[in-house]
């Protein structure tokens, strides 16, 4: 059965008949959407029974303040029927992610999570990895932070002495590097260790990562005794050092010897203004740390109610586990969503996921309870720090609005939108203008924009700024109350001209001018009429403006550098005789990008269909110049 959608027959909002809509609701699972009078999406929800769920909003007089506020604004609604509650949950998640309704809880989407990778090379390399996982090599993670991955790599190098050099460096070494000298690598590049022995270390490293510490101890001890009996004293000495290093690591990090305790932990809390989800990961018997993810919704009413928090955590879990496999044990602090999440995962996986393959619990015991308590405490502490930081920013934002004579009601302060523009280029090439957004007392990366400037004279910052501002404001959507230009009188004049020509009013425009000697803290605010003010005593407002300006500069530089790298990759490969579009595509696909291609050896390049040994040599020599 294809999903069918029930909407009002007349698209005009004024003629939407709520009574007819409610009476036509089916008893099936699905998703419902509420809109305001301008057909802006307010909320997306899922239901096992659409009729029962949607009617509850309009028949119940004891709605929470948050829900009551939303229903008061709802002037139009529509539904989508699906086959099951799990499908409804998936559709709801997709709509929330793509359409960002105001009354749903939104978290910034991490594009990728840090992983630890063991390559598929004949002498596998251990490395930090972030990106799309392919079928080559072994991946472990995700880890809560890049630091946790790098610490794990250091531990594995101390114990098992695995290489971390690139394949191209490995293929071209004639003597051991410093890693061998400090006993962090066994020197496979120059044949100090045999392929068999290196693979034994790799196998033990895999066991270690999976928490099988006792097995690793037993294997190392047995091999050490065997080497001693065969009078291989140097090898026995190396194995003895590995055993000692393993013992020290387990003792230092308080590692458990059973991988059965490995788990992912999620806790959610709110202070009424912010929501935090704190994630902790335990792998290989080691607590890898935690990371707090924040949401600061525009509508803060009712944020700390159990229903809102449970729904937010459920959506967070769905988004999180789209990219990575489920752990053996998942611990959460909202028991009311345990069964819903299990049913959702089983429906998606079908017969491939047996019930209980991921145990979801909300009341852990023993060591897991200690980890859960630590994660819970860290979530509350992070929320407290965020609250203090936001309150300070709130006060400074209010002071800034007053200084610039931007009239806002107290309840409008959270929607006060500031946009900052900055132009960046390298010797006139790869010119970008960035637009960053400050709103709800924080930077909003999901609202940032980069404008690649084309068709203007090289190095003409004024023309570049004019083009970017025109492209940004010509549609007159989501206009800010304040525009900051990183520049002086000339840039501010250009901005005023663009805004005026587009007929836009009620936007305050300022420039942020660097002080004498370009020293930080001596900046001035420049107005379109040429007047300026400085911050002699209280620099809190200046620090806020400088923070926004610096973010615009960072974002513009990032766009410019990415463009330069992209252009250099394209031109570099295009210059090689015998490499056309087809071979270029094969090269980049085989190695996963230009950076990885630079690490490839001649023989690896020659292994690609259609590339001869002679052409591979030409490509290698061209890349390494």
What does it look like?
With 625 residues, this protein is an alpha+beta fold. Among the domains are: 95 residues, GIY-YIG endonuclease (3-Layer(aba) Sandwich); 128 residues, Nucleotidyltransferase, domain 5 (2-Layer Sandwich), CATH 3.30.420; 147 residues, Nucleotidyltransferase, domain 5; 50 residues, 5' to 3' exonuclease, C-terminal subdomain (DNA polymerase, domain 1), CATH 1.10.150.20. 44% of the residues lie in helices and 17% in strands. The protein contains 20 helices and 20 strands. The strands form 4 sheets. Strands 13, 14, 15, 16, 17, 18, 19 and 20 form an 8-stranded mixed β-sheet that branches. Strand 14 and strand 15 form a beta hairpin. Helix 4 crosses helix 12 and helix 9 packs antiparallel against helix 10. The longest helix has 38 residues.
- In the CATH scheme, the class of the domain at 411-557 would be Alpha Beta
In quaternary terms, these chains amount to single chain
DSSP strand count: 20
What share of residues is helical? Answer: 40-55%
Summarize this entry quickly.
By secondary structure, this protein is an alpha+beta fold. Among the domains are: 95 residues, GIY-YIG endonuclease (3-Layer(aba) Sandwich); 128 residues, 2-Layer Sandwich (Nucleotidyltransferase, domain 5); 147 residues, Nucleotidyltransferase, domain 5; 50 residues, 5' to 3' exonuclease, C-terminal subdomain (DNA polymerase, domain 1).
Keywords:
625 residues, alpha+beta, GIY-YIG endonuclease, Nucleotidyltransferase, domain 5, 8-stranded mixed beta sheet, 5-stranded mixed beta sheet, 20 helices, 20 strands, 44% helix, 17% strand, disordered N terminus
């Amino acid at each position: 059965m294809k999903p069918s959608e029930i909407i009002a027959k007349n698209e005009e909002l004024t003629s939407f008949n709520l009574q007819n809509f409610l009476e036509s609701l089916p008893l099936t699972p699905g998703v419902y959407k509420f809109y305001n009078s301008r057909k802006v999406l307010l909320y997306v929800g899922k239901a096992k029974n659409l009729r029962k769920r949607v009617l509850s909003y309009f028949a119940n007089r004891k709605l929470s303040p948050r829900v009551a506020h939303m229903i008061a604004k709802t002037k139009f609604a529509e539904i989508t029927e699906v086959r099951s509650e799990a499908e409804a949950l998936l559709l709801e998640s997709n709509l929330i992610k793509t359409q960002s309704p105001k009354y749903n809880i939104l978290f910034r989407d991490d594009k990728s999570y840090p992983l630890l990778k063991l390559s598929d090379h004949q002498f596998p390399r251990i490395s930090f990895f972030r990106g799309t996982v392919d079928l080559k090599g072994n991946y472990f993670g995700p880890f809560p932070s890049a630091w946790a991955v790098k610490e794990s790599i250091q531990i594995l190098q101390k114990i098992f002495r695995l290489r971390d050099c690139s394949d191209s460096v490995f293929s071209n070494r004639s003597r051991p590097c410093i890693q061998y000298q400090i006993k962090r690598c066994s020197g496979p590049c120059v044949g100090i260790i045999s392929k068999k022995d290196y693979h034994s270390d790799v196998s033990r490293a895999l066991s270690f990562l999976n928490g099988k510490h006792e097995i690793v101890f037993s294997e190392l001890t047995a091999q050490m005794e065997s080497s001693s009996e065969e009078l291989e004293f140097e090898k026995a000495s190396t194995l003895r050092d590995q055993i000692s290093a393993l013992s020290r690591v387990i003792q230092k990090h308080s590692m458990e010897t059973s991988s059965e305790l490995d788990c992912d932990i999620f806790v959610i809390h709110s202070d009424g203004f912010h929501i935090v989800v704190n994630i902790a990961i335990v792998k290989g018997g080691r607590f890898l740390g935690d990371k707090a993810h924040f949401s600061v919704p525009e509508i803060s009413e009712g944020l700390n109610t159990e229903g809102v928090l449970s729904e937010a955590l459920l959506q967070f879990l769905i988004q999180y586990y789209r990219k990575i496999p489920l752990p053996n044990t998942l611990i959460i602090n909202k028991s009311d969503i345990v069964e819903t999440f299990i049913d959702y995962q089983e429906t998606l996986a079908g017969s491939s996921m047996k019930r209980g393959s991921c145990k979801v619990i909300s009341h852990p015991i023993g060591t897991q309870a200690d980890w859960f308590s630590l994660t819970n405490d860290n979530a509350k502490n992070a929320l407290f720090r965020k609250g203090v930081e936001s309150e300070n920013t709130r006060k400074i934002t209010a002071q800034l609005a007053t200084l610039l004579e931007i009239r806002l009601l107290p309840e409008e302060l959270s929607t006060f939108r500031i946009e900052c523009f900055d132009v960046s280029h390298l010797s006139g090439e790869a010119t970008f203008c960035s637009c960053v957004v400050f709103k709800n007392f924080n930077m909003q990366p999901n609202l940032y924009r980069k404008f690649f400037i084309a068709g203007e004279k090289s190095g003409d910052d004024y023309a570049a700024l004019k083009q970017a501002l025109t492209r940004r404001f010509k549609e007159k959507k989501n206009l800010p109350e304040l525009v900051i230009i990183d520049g002086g009188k000339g840039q501010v004049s250009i901005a005023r001209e663009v805004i005026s020509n587009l007929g836009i009013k009620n936007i305050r425009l300022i420039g942020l001018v660097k002080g004498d000697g370009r020293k930080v803290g001596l900046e001035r605010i420049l107005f379109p009429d040429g007047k300026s003010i400085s911050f002699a005593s209280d620099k809190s407002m200046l620090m806020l403006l400088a923070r926004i300006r610096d973010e615009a500069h960072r974002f513009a530089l990032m766009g410019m550098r990415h463009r330069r790298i992209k252009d250099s990759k394209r031109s570099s490969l295009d210059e090689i005789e015998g490499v056309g579009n087809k071979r270029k595509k094969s090269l980049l696909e085989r190695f996963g990008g230009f950076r990885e291609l630079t690490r490839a050896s001649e023989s690896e390049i020659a292994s690609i269909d259609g590339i001869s040994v002679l052409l591979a040599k030409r490509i290698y020599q061209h890349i390494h110049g």
